[in-house]
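Hi all, long-time lurker, first post. I run a small reading group and we've been trying to get comfortable going from sequence to structure in the token notation. Rather than ask abstract questions, I figured I'd post a concrete chain and ask someone more experienced to write out its structure so we can walk through it together at our next meeting. Sequence below, copied exactly:
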Amino acid sequence: MTMLKVKPKILVVDDEPHMTRMLTRLFRQIPAAEVEAALSGEEALAKFEKFAPLVVVSDIKMAGMDGMELLRRVREIDPTVSVVLITGYGTIEMAVEALKLGAYDFIQKPFDSDRILHIVERALERTALLQENERLKKKVVTCAWERLGIIGESKALQKVLDMVERVACSDVTVLIRGESGTGKELIARAIHMLSDRKDKELVTINCPAVPEHILESELFGYVKGAFTGATTDKEGLFQVADGSTIFLDEIGDIPPNIQTKLLRVLQEKEIRPLGSTKTIPVDVRVIASTNQDLEAKIKEGLFREDLYYRLNVVTIYLPPLRERKEDILPLAMHFLQKYAEKYGREGLSFSSEALEYLLKNPWKGNVRELQNVVRRAVLLAKGDVITPEDLIEKEETHSWPNPFDDYLERPYAEAKKELLNFFSRRYVENLLFKTGGNVTQAARLAGLERQAFQRLMRQVGVRSEDFRA
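-- Answer (accepted) --
Happy to help. Here is the structure in token form:
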């Protein structure tokens, strides 16, 4: 028998005690074998989950649950387990039925001890191989998700990933909902990469990051002469995404006139560039995301109800990190490894107190906040072990550098310009960090119109996508 990587466990089931004793002694000849006995099908099922056998050897004719029913139940629980059935009243029809139900082998009494020993050894090898294959498949699936940047072990996340796998191969429109920082763009990318459109690049647009007067031409393109400065035709992102997928991030922020045009694309599968009288057919899959209450926006008249139903064909809800605490430590370890390699700090680890802090923190900013906290800790940790102090953002005044001393000797106009730029950049970065890159929310916090805030972003060279998960 081939050396097994797992412990060979055998469950013997027969309502005749002398038979279970004889088979138990026989199977213990197998190196390292553990053998348990049960005197009924019901007792066997009760022992099955805790003992976790690789092989079940059972008599068919027993009072209560017979061997055939036990075979069915075992196959339901774990189809990799090999079941060998024994009977003294066998017929060809019974053997055929047992094999159809998934029995590994069917043995008639009286049987040769060497023969049944050989059959059970082969059955052990078969189950061990099947279970190793299942383990490797799960590992490959886990690695595949990790390559897409999706880390986690929680049931809540697995439910999301199951949905991703189910919808990926179709062209159905998908709406991804969830709080800022939960990783909605990663889910969109996963859907695209698992689809038949994966050979073409995913086209992404962060709707609130683009000024309203530019968003229409960005999405649908324009023709020469459509407006002042339109000296040539320009393809819109829907044309760029032809044959691929377009991801409309934060769809809840798009203005009403563009909502109408987007509805036409979803209904008619065609676009009309700005300034054109002709429509252009496009083959584009649409994935959208939002962290807003679209139903409330519909009641307020800010979002079209018909567009909502067109987008909401399949909804994937991405839970906040506080609802999937099992994912916190795997994510933290992933970010630790990522940034330790990036910043040349290999060998860093979390203290037990730091791990406890990570688990207890509410993570209102979700995965993005966790990522930023770990990145900062990797940069600032003094030793080889990250402590809770390294994870907690300090608010001392010296955490913001005081730049004034460097400029006191410079000409007033030059110093004022540079200091104003420094302040503006830090101010914009702080608001975008708080809002997870949501320009509309950041502008609201700043008391500015969105377009004015976007101009400020361009002036200081800050991009909203750098603050999104």
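A couple of things your group might point at:
Residues 113-147 form the longest helix (35 residues).
The chain has 20 helices and 14 strands.
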